[in-house]
């Protein structure tokens, strides 16, 4: 055990040091850069040859002499030049926030005019002894320069700042006070945030926007804020028509500006890693750092840090942070995972709907939902129109069985499952994007609107010719044509051909048995592939339970007005008929699937009482399964 030894983290390749204790540990990285852990004597102690740690307590000296041993010799020299030495050697009790030697090199304040230097040094002093523990977050102390105040922030990560200068060597005790070495020269501030914006030429556009949005009074008040202030350059980077639209829309403009403002004062030196912070607009910015650069959402767009005012701090940025709430539908989709859909919407002549002020909701399929063979035919254009819903919606307000009207005049159904929320066959794959007038739902598939009943779907698909005949023989045509909500695992012609010929012939000639078998393929309720989750169970019209497990569905989500059809290459048999023997898996075939569900969303179908061998972990490209219990 080494007495009076303090740990210190130094950022590799720089002179930046952070004194550390068990409550303040920066995980061996600061601003993404690795650190080296070293140990040195705590303030006021020194080593003795042959002994562990730093056992010798140094005699206290006055502040002037303490400056020299604390690493602030330049401040010591300037104190003598400014005729401050006698004051800080004499009687009294002071706190001196002393700039380090490196801080003076970086600062242009040093002047041959001694009175100016004296005033600057007096602003670094408080007429009382204040330890680092007494420097509470948000506290304000009167300095020894014309009663100007200094602003203290003591952050949860242990970092302490005075006027945004970080204390790099705190608590250097002296006979007449205490010295805290800081990383920069601090200057007096007497202006509020609004005044600071008013007098800065580089913030002229921001100044005009703040006035138009009615936010000037807020920035003149006592509440404290951090502003990421977009410069004129930042405003000039966005398209003129976008800027004109936002400046002319008071609601969008206020949202835009509030997206740059955070409550409380966050000095750059308080950030040692990415930290989520909520803006006044309600969005979350990740305020971080990369080496010496301050970052926003991972981008180094901060050009000037720590312009401190009486009620906050300003950091200049060279990019505008436009929130979704100030964007059009087209802008919501830009640069996202739905760029293919966006291009199709534009090519279909829907740009005016996507950039206007109409209340709409766009269902935007992920890029991978498209096959790559789509052409802008009239049918495809109509399909795209049916991806746009009337009214601005929130997915949180949707409910099972709800019908949503499209611009194309169709009514789309909402299906709510334990693991997913779907509109017809398309399921929500990401959080809503809520724009100024319209919203965007990212969905996992291209929408397949229902164009007829289950019977119509089967008749239109030549894979089901034998099934259509079987349904008619079984007297189930009316059931599959009437209004309702059914899920039909429809056997293809291949499924019938896989049966022994004699068995197939007997089945197709027996209406009663055929009805029993076909009803085993039909379940109450609509279950699309996106609603599949582990061990989900359905009750067939025959009264037997189906659990998703093992034989392939060759094509899922053939949507009908009264349900959904999933094509299967296997005939489901009752367990009673099969004597509890596991049916052989046949026709294994995968079909494309998309992310957005918490589990795989393609399916296999197996009627079995036996539990199959555990399957390997499957990705979203694997089929989903059924099992009859």
Automatic annotation (TrEMBL):
Domain EMI: 2-56
Record InterPro entries: Adhesion/Biosynth-related (IPR050904), EMI_domain (IPR011489), FAS1_dom_sf (IPR036378), FAS1_domain (IPR000782)
Pfam family, one: Fasciclin
Signal sequence coordinates: none
GO biological process, one term: cell adhesion
Domain of life: Eukaryota
Molecular function, one GO term: cell adhesion molecule binding
Subunit: Binds to type I, II, and IV collagens.
This protein's name: Transforming growth factor-beta-induced protein ig-h3
Species name: Oryzias sinensis
Source organism phylogeny: Eukaryota, Metazoa, Chordata, Craniata, Vertebrata
């Amino acid at each position: 055990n080494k007495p009076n030894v303090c740990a210190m983290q130094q950022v590799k390749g720089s002179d930046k040091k952070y004194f550390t204790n068990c409550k303040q540990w920066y995980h061996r990285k600061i601003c993404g850069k690795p650190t080296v852990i070293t140990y040195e004597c705590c303030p006021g102690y020194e080593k003795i040859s042959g002994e562990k740690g730093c056992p010798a307590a140094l005699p206290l000296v006055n502040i002037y002499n303490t400056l020299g041993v604390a690493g602030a010799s330049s401040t010591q020299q300037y104190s003598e030049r400014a005729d401050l030495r006698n004051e800080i050697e004499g009687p009294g009790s002071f706190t001196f926030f002393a700039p380090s030697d490196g801080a003076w090199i970086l600062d242009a304040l040093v002047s041959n005019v001694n009175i100016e230097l004296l005033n600057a040094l007096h602003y670094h002093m408080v007429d009382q002894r204040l330890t680092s523990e007494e420097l509470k977050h948000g506290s304000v102390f009167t300095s020894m320069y014309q009663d100007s105040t200094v602003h203290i922030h003591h952050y949860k990560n242990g970092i302490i700042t005075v006027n945004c200068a970080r204390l790099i060597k705190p608590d250097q005790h002296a006979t007449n006070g205490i010295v805290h070495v800081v990383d920069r020269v601090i200057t007096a501030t007497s202006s509020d945030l609004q005044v600071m914006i008013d007098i800065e030429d580089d913030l002229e556009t921001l100044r005009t926007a703040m006035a138009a949005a009615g936010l000037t009074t807020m920035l003149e008040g006592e509440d404290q804020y951090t502003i990421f202030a977009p410069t004129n350059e930042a405003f000039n980077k966005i398209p003129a028509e976008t800027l004109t639209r936002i400046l002319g829309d008071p609601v969008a403009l206020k949202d835009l500006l509030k997206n740059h403002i955070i409550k409380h004062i966050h000095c750059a030196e308080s950030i040692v890693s990415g930290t989520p912070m909520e803006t006044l607009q309600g969005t979350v910015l990740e305020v971080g750092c990369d080496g010496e650069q301050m970052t926003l959402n991972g981008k180094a767009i901060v050009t000037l840090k720590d312009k401190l005012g009486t009620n906050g701090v300003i950091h200049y940025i060279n990019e505008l942070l436009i929130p979704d709430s100030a964007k059009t539908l087209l802008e919501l989709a830009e640069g996202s995972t739905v760029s293919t859909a966006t291009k199709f919407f534009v090519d279909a002549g829907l740009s005016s709907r996507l950039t206007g002020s109409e209340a709409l909701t766009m269902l935007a399929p992920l890029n991978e939902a498209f096959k790559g063979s789509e052409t802008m035919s009239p049918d495809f254009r109509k399909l795209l129109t049916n991806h746009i819903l009337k009214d601005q919606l929130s997915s949180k307000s949707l409910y099972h069985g709800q019908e949503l009207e499209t611009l194309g005049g169709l009514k789309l159904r909402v299906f709510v499952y334990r693991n997913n929320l779907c509109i017809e066959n398309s399921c929500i794959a990401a959080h809503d994007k809520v724009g100024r007038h319209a919203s965007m739902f990212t969905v996992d598939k291209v929408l397949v609107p229902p164009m007829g009943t289950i019977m119509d779907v089967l008749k239109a698909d030549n894979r089901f010719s034998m099934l259509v005949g079987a349904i008619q023989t079984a007297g189930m045509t009316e059931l599959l044509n009437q209004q309702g909500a059914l899920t039909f695992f429809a056997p293809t012609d291949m499924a019938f051909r896989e049966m022994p010929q004699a068995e197939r012939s007997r089945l197709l000639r027996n209406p009663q048995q055929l009805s029993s078998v076909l009803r085993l393929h039909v379940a109450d309720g609509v279950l699309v592939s996106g609603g599949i989750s582990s061990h989900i169970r359905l009750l067939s019209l025959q009264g037997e339970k189906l659990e998703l497990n093992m034989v392939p569905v060759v094509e899922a989500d053939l949507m009908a007005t009264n349900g959904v059809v999933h094509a299967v290459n296997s005939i489901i048999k009752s367990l009673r008929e099969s004597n509890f023997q596991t049916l052989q898996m046949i026709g294994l075939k995968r079909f494309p699937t998309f992310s957005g569900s918490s589990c795989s969303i393609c399916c296999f179908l197996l009627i079995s009482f036996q539990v199959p061998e555990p399957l390997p972990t499957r990705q979203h490209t694997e089929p989903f399964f059924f099992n009859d219990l």
